[in-house]
Amino acid sequence: MHDPTRGRSLLPWLLAATLAAPPALGEGLLSGLAPGGSLTLTSDYIYRGVSSSNNEPAVQADLHVSTSGGTFLGVWSSTRDSALDPYANYELDIYLGHRFDLSNAWSVTAIGRAHYLLGGSQEFSDDYQELGVSVSWLDAWTFSFTAIPAFPRYWFDERLSRAPAFVTEMTAQWLIYDGLFITGGVGYYRITGTGPGIESADGYAYGDVGLAWEHRHWRLEVGYYRTGERAEVLMPYPSANQHWAGSVVWRF
After folding, report:
1. Burial category of 93 from C-beta neighbours within 10 Å (exposed 0-12, middle 13-18, buried 19 and up)
2. How many CB atoms lie within 10 A of CB 94?
3. Distance between CA atoms of 165 and 147, rounded to whole angstroms?
4. SS3 152
5. Is residue 9 within 8 Å of 114, Cβ to Cβ?
6. What's phi and psi for 233, nearest 5 deg?
7. What is the value of pTM for the model shown?
8. What is the CATH number of the domain that holds 133?
9. Tally of domains within the chain
10. Which residues constitute the domain of residue 233?
11. Is residue 1 part of a domain?
């Protein structure tokens, strides 16, 4: 299938909407700018229950700027296996969001993200955009809902079409001793139907449990992953079912 049309970023619209927001939000864009980021080496790039690095290591980086008002803007990137559809070498995400503090413990975050696949010998576009909202209690528990207006639909390795998709996730971490955490998460991915048979609505569940240790700017993580069988049908990437992975993160 040949589809040379590239995905269009939501970023300009999100910027315009933020700038047109109430004065308190507009002031947040200009006050207390603080840069930050991270570098990550992971044994397997697992995202939403499947491996984008084909069960091989990946290098990832994040660079962002945030304000004292809660607005943030950033760029995230990762290497990937170019042998996987659509045969790109890298992933690049541009994101814009705002965190609303409801109390000392509770917060709500709204975020828009434009996801691009770069390099390699791509014959069609798997770029997409998504909008998400999450509710968090401290840094211990987060529930999120993400809507993807036009996500690429696959049947095993065959690219079929695009359709709206939705992702629901819940993650948690519990401090047990001096920087050592128990971590875990569950999620469900569902793509809507555009027809009968292989074009019908479908989805799969996924989850993980593990340990993490933080010290100053460093975080070490190891986790065990489970993924529902339908992921092998709906995604062109290897399932992370019954799989271990670890990562080293340096934050700055």
Report:
1. middle
2. 19
3. 6
4. strand
5. yes
6. -90, -40
7. 0.86
8. 2.40.160.40
9. 1
10. 11-251
11. no
